[in-house]
Every structure is written in C-alpha cells, then in structure tokens.
Amino acid sequence: MSTSDTTVRVVVLGSSVSENSLVGNFILGRAAFDSEAPPDVVERVAGRLKDRHVIIINSPQLLQTNISDHQITQTVRECVHLSDPGPHVIVLLLKHEPCSAEDQECVEKVLRSFSERVYQHTMVISTQEPTQTNHILQNIIQKCANRHFSLQTSSSPHDLMQMFEDIEEMNDGQHLDCDEVSESVKLNLVVCGSDETLKSSISELILQQTDRRSDVELHGCQISLVELPALIRLSEEEVMRQTHRCVSLCHPGVHVFIIIIPDAQLNNEDKAEMEEIQRIFSSRINKHIMILIKQNSEHQTAELNEETQSVIERFGGRHQFIDLNTQGSVLMEKLEQIVEENSGVCFSTETLMETQMEKILKFEKIKSLETHLLSQGNEQKIILGLKLQSMF
What we know:
GTP binding; nucleotide-binding; G_AIG1; six-stranded mixed β-sheet; GIMA/IAN/Toc; P-loop_NTPase
C-alpha cells in the first residue's frame, strides 16, 4: 500500500504536559508544543516526517486517573473533532513506574470512549527505562498488539513513523471510525421563571452571550437555549402559543426545563408561575426539570427553607445553587445527568399535544358527568359528585 501522499493523524494521550510536549516535539523535529501549556488544552500541530504530512493532536490530561467522566467525554470529543475525519494512530504515553491497576482502568475507559475498535490503531510510547518488569504496562502493550516504542532505546523519529505506517497498513489505510463521538451532542434547554431579569442573567451565564435564543457549543455540547416568557402575565391563548413555540424551537424536543428561583422565600409570583408551568405541561415535565436557585455574593447558603423544599420535591427534587462564580462544567454535569436518567428522551411537541388532549378529554368527561348528575336522584347525585371531586 502506498501511503506517501496521505496525511497521518496521530492523537497523543498522556498525563503530563512536559512529557506530551517532549513526544510531540520529537515526532515533528521542532519545538512545536509548549511544556508550560495548561493541561486541559488540546493542541493540534502539523508538520512533515519522512515526506509525509503529519498532524499531531496533543492531549496531556486524558490519562490522569483523577479526571472525571465528563472531562473524558468532552476531551475525547475534542480530540476526534481536531482529527476529523478520524485519527490513524492513538499513542498512549505511559510511564513504567508507577503503572497501577487504576492506571490500566483509566486507559481502558479513555480508549473505549473513542471506539470499540480503538486497539487496532493504538500503540504505547514510554519515555523512561524500566527498573523492573511492570505487568500492568505489559498487559496494556499486549492489548495494543505489542506495539511499543521507547524513546530511551531509539532516538530516530523515522523509526516511530515506520510504526505509524505499519498501523496504517494493518488497517488498510483506514482511520479510526469515531462517528458516535464526533457527532456533537445536542442539549435543548428551556429557561423558565417569573423574573425576566433573573432568567436573562442565567441564560448569559450558561451561553456566555446575550442572545434571547442561541445555538452555541459549550463543553463539547451543542446547546440550544430558549427563554419561556412568564406565563402568569399572558392570556390563555398566548400561553398556549408561547409554550408550543418554545418546544417546537427545541427540535426534537426539550431535554431540560430550567426553572430559575431566587435564594429567598418564594413570593406569590414565583409560586403562581411554577403552578402554571405544571398545569400546562402536566406532571410529565417533572423528569425533565432542574431548579436553579440564584444566589448573590452577600448571602451564600446551601440550605432550603421548608416551603421551597416542598415545591422542589413536587417538581422532582433536582436543584442546584448557582452564582456568577459557578463553573459551567458543574452545571453541565447536572444537566447531562438528567439527560442520561431519561435515556435521551425529550419532552417533544407530541408530548405537549398529548397533555393538552388529555385535558380536553378530562374536561369533556367532567361535562358529561355534570350533565348526567343533573338528571339523577339525590343518592345518585352524591355518588357522581364524589367521582367529580376525585378528578380534580
């Protein structure tokens, strides 16, 4: 197979900025990567080696054992995006010591995040000479078809390039297919509440911009955010129009309804708005709700008053305190957790129409019972009256 006219895309995974920079610079033969760069920055640098165009995607934090699942997901997605349409080679930059069972578990979790077939494209590079045999490291190398390159025993980047080309040839020149990762995750949000100023400030905090409706990429997710006007200030006709509009804008549906309330005793408007939201969307909305409690810098507490706690429990119990210093990743993890709990199922326009139809049928049944009640004797009226009461 001729590979002389193709690009080789290599993703280098590690746990140390300095060592990742060392390997990236070794491959490219120049100081392309900064050893002082932040560990959470994924860099993409191109160069030439053995008359081949080489692209290095350098991720120096993915193999850290303390990295969260959320960080793994987002960083892997970024690596795949930067190596579009996919990497030819995945390089694991591992140390001989220490290399523990925890390290192996981390490596396997990260690699699975790329693809189930990732080992066909993976190799190990070590920068240190071993002082003794490390069985964990040997297990990882064996899973990579015994592909291992030591910078201590070989100083030639051409030798390393030959290993890259061997991996290419074994895979018939095909890159690793990471389609499931590369598709940007869509997260549709509707921000609700009676305080328009409070809703806007939270929307800006989430999106980091001031559009009333925005589509941006944040933490690897494509976010669509819509602000629902305060329903208590609208006519019934306008309520139906605005709710249908918001859900329609979030195709194929709303993943999370964010209800914003202040960190204070709920006022009548707050309570009325939440009642109206549940009246329109029904209890089906509860599994899609996150209540954000806006704090200010002067009053910080993690406690809820009894009334607020009762309202939150009625809406599913999910809540999060938030202020201007809240990290976006913290909120994103909470929102993605709701999506996972619902297995990605949205509150769609079809769901909204079903809730409205249920209300219409319930109303018609009530009217039918009322008509029947008027034609009955006193004993039958009492029985039918009790049935009517049970429907409210």
